[in-house]
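User: Just a sanity check before I run the rest of the batch. Below are the structure tokens for the first item. I only need the designed sequence back.
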């Protein structure tokens, strides 16, 4: 690609990204609507309009907030079409930090020093050494009041810019390309209601990762435990020997969880228990716990441990009851990528052609690609150039974002070439 192409990409990419992040698409796990918040639909409509202007075919926004579109192959007449590939990003942002009235700050030439965003919110290269790699380059932060929303509006802007580039360069060979934007990824809801039948791509790539050059092809096995502690309420005047307090039952249960197996005490390949919500009162208290590990066997061990902790709490509160329901959320996507080597080989090559070496990282979490892989569409996750997701210190490196666009464009070409060869 020519230098003029790179500056065109930068300009189109930034214009989009800075526009998308201003739309509040914070998802809400307590909302019963689909998608959970209206802002996601607002952003989806903006994307629909842009895709239609690019003359992309079959643009459809369904009532659930899923956006589908399709870029037709330009290999017409050639004997063999490569398999269709798809690009995925999510519309929502995390509710772990404020996402309303995002006011992005572009640091044209980052000086490599501490950035004071606002009172008490600083980006310090001592704490976040990745900042150092972008000294002298363009980075984007929030103003410290909100998250930035690079997760995953960087992914959206990168895919959209790659599509625009392909449309403007009909000489660049590519097969059928699916474009899929999903709502409520941060709540783990997107894949529960995913209209898988509408995916015509054989393989997909989510653009929802972080540091440049990274490929994520392995994630947790995710399970969720819902616990109900059932006590017995009675006036305190006559409570002796009768009252069973569900709050105390839940507290006793939490006390049994091994602290060494918590997110804050682990890293690398070690999994954990993660209590994330507790609500209730004396008669009934409910508790939600995530179970995570890279090995299925290890999550199963933790699930069994929760069962026996529940029985232990019943032994301490003989007149109380503990109900426990454990369900699977997603599987380690590694299982589904093992057998289709081309998916990762082309991705490695696509990254290499942007001038850096690909680096594999494991995801200590889930990704839309995990569920999708399980449903039969192997889908690794690609970097977006964003950092410090879900926080006011979220930032994005523009050179890395440009690399992500180039990676997507290269992928289309590599699959097309591979298809013709094979
Ligand atoms: Zn994300």
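Assistant: Here's the designed sequence for the first item:
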């Amino acid at each position: 690609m020519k230098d003029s192409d790179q500056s065109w990409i930068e300009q189109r990419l930034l214009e989009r990204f800075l526009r998308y992040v201003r739309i509040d698409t914070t998802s809400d796990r307590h909302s019963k609507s689909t998608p959970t918040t209206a802002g996601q639909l607002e952003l989806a409509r903006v994307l629909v309009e842009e895709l239609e202007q690019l003359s992309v075919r079959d643009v459809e926004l369904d009532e659930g907030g899923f956006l589908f579109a399709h870029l037709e192959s330009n290999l017409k007449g050639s004997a063999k079409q490569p398999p269709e590939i798809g690009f995925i990003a999510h519309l929502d942002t995390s509710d772990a930090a404020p996402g309303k009235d995002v006011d992005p700050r572009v640091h044209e030439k980052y000086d490599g020093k501490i950035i004071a965003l606002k009172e008490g919110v600083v980006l310090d290269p001592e704490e976040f050494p990745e900042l150092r790699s972008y000294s002298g380059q363009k980075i984007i932060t929030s103003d410290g009041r909100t998250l930035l929303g690079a997760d995953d509006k960087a992914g959206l802007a990168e895919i959209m810019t790659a599509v625009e580039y392909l449309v403007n360069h009909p000489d660049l060979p590519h097969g059928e390309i699916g474009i899929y934007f999903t709502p409520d990824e941060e709540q783990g809801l997107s894949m529960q209601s995913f209209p898988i039948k509408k995916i015509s791509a054989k393989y997909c790539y989510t653009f929802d990762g972080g540091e440049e050059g990274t490929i994520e092809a392995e994630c947790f096995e995710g399970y969720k435990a819902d616990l109900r502690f059932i006590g017995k309420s009675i006036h305190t005047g006559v409570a002796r020997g009768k009252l069973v307090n569900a709050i105390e039952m839940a507290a006793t249960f939490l006390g049994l969880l091994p602290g060494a197996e918590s997110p804050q005490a682990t890293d690398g390949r070690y999994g954990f228990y993660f209590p994330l919500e507790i609500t209730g009162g004396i008669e009934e208290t409910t508790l939600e716990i995530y179970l995570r590990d890279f090995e299925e066997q290890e999550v199963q061990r933790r699930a069994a441990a929760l069962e026996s902790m529940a029985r232990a709490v019943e032994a301490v509160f003989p007149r109380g009851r503990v109900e426990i329901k454990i369900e699977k959320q997603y599987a380690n996507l590694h299982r589904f990528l093992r057998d289709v080597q081309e998916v990762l080989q082309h991705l490695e090559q696509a990254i290499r052609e942007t001038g850096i070496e690909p680096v594999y990282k494991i995801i200590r979490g889930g990704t839309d690609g995990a569920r999708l892989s399980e449903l039969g569409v192997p889908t690794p996750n690609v970097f977006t150039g964003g950092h410090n997701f879900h926080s006011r210190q979220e930032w994005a490196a523009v050179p890395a974002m440009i690399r992500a666009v180039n990676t997507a464009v290269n992928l289309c070409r590599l699959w097309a070439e591979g298809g013709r060869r094979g």
